[in-house]
Design goal:
Helix content of chain A: 10-25%
Radius of gyration of chain A: 15 Å
Oligomer: homotrimer
CATH topology of chain A: 60s Ribosomal Protein L30, Chain: A
CATH class of chain A: Alpha Beta
Number of domains of chain A: 1
Strand order of the largest sheet of chain A: 1-2-6-3-4
Distance between the termini of chain A: 32 Å
Structural class of chain A: alpha+beta
Chain lengths: 128, 128, 128
């Protein structure tokens, strides 16, 4: 599948998961965000132009640890519209014949504009 | 995070949850839809121009009660493409150190056009 | 609700589920993809121009069987950015008063460009 698709000046990213799932939720979140940074750069964009993000967490108890890394990553005033959902996401090993469980999902799906930041308006109404 | 991001004449909304979770699923749905109405109005749009919606329900058994309020809210012939999924969504208190469980998720994520309704085509093939 | 909404040269599809849930996951996946083919055709597009897809599986153990049908359906080099999540999705019977459980969700939500394929760029970085 495609990791990134560009259309109408927007980039659609595939769901990203951590490669090294031996790391804790903070480390896995950092891996995912680094993958997103790479994909955005290849598409000629960056995290200052995020439109929307979905985060799937296997366990909502990991929210605070994930969110801490997220907050350090996003650019204040340039944050995407986000939804965080408790659900497992398919990892790179999903579907293999091994008996290992699906990798913990730490990733999200991001759609963002590759246009100029000035072309976007944001409404920051809360911090939740 | 941003509650709404505008790009290419489209508005991307963050996941919305009920503030008062002591209300039943109908009441919580009404709260969420009222929040969406407010965000759309601030972005210069309204519910007659919805493109797509995702609804996350903690328990699919609440579908009928949620859907009744949804159906009363949407404008016939102007309804968005919708997907309803059973999963918990992070609420405003998620990540706090309190031991309370995540709030029941009644909300969705909506992307909609801020363009003129005439610029959209819809195919109504069912009521599900 | 609308099964497809068109805006800005993009088509937003509602979540699709199998009609005949007596079939196995492969058969249900085929039903869903056939429904998507129909909706895309009605909107003047096709699967060669998919932008993004979300797949909700009731059980991630069905990933391989779903993915086999998916891989046979997509056009190499024209695949969408995909995220596969383990969660139940509302079916056509959800909300009815019958005591039957929600249908197994095999469907996804697709957003795709109805523009020319040449207007898209794709980055294929993996096969996961």
């Amino acid at each position: 599948m495609s990791q990134a698709v560009v259309c109408n000046g927007m980039v659609f990213l595939a769901g990203q998961v951590a490669d090294d799932t031996s790391q804790d939720v903070g480390g896995q979140t950092r891996q995912v965000l680094a993958a997103i940074d790479r994909l955005l750069a290849e598409a000629g964009s960056d995290k200052s132009r995020l439109l929307a993000a979905q985060i799937f967490l296997a366990d909502m108890a990991d929210f605070a640890a994930m969110n801490k890394v997220w907050e350090a990553w996003v650019i204040p005033g340039q944050t995407p519209a986000r939804a965080t959902v408790q659900a497992a996401m398919a990892g790179r090993t999903t579907g293999s014949r091994s008996s290992s469980p699906p990798r913990p999902p730490e990733a999200g799906r991001l759609e963002h504009a590759s246009g100029k930041p000035g072309g976007q308006r944001r409404a920051d109404l809360g911090t939740a």
